[in-house]
Amino acid sequence: MALSDVGATEQTPTVSGPITTRTRIQPRRQAQEPGRAVGVSASHLLVSSPECPSAVVEAYHTLFTNVELAMGAADDRVLAVCAVDTTANAALVAANLALVGAESGERTLLVDADMEAPALDALFGANPGPGLVQLLRGEQGDLRDLAQPTTLPTLGVIAAGGAAAGTRHHRLDRLGDLSAAVLRLKNAADRVVIVAAPVLSAPDAQRLAAHVDGMLLVIAPGRTAREDAGRARALLERAQAPLLGVAIVPRA
Description:
The chain is α/β, with parallel strands linked by helices. The protein has helices at residues 54-71, 90-103, 120-124, 132-137, 143-146, 178-188, 204-208, 226-238, and strands at 14-16, 78-83, 108-113, 148-149, 155-158, 191-196, 214-219, 243-248.
């Protein structure tokens, strides 16, 4: 199923399968002060930032609506977002979908499951851990301790966790009971948005497929090779992933 085009001008992100308009998404990193809540305006292209162009905000609101319609059932509340490879920014797409949901009043958890290159901590100015790694290992059981607060009371961010980045031995399928962890996340929120590693970089998106209600594939036109996108889609289909469509946004 392809999501409908939400682009309007060259300055807006587009979501479809395929989409023609594009935007340059370049998140700015912001250090977090000790004891400070995660700032949802850490990037000028997070939809909650006053610096975010209105066309981009509108595009993500439309994408959120399209995702909701594609997922359908009220109990389908867990969305995984993954890029084909490192040419596209799945973390930014996931973050903005989570923000739109949280702004509507939904209790939302945004979770970084990209063990290859976790990005939510930098995007939100959050602490890199503890996070999902500790939940999967059973080292941290209370989600209230893992979900870092934001300036939106309905949004919590769970980082990938300490010692996650770039460590192949910390793939999701080797860390613990993924099914149980996703179920706990689902039971703790109205909506869960999970960022997975790029499909062609690690098997984690395929492992997640059995435990989520929908998956969104992110590509960057002019950067993501068509054959690579086809390979990624084939891998997800082989894993019987609940693929909703493709989000097309330029590389951040």
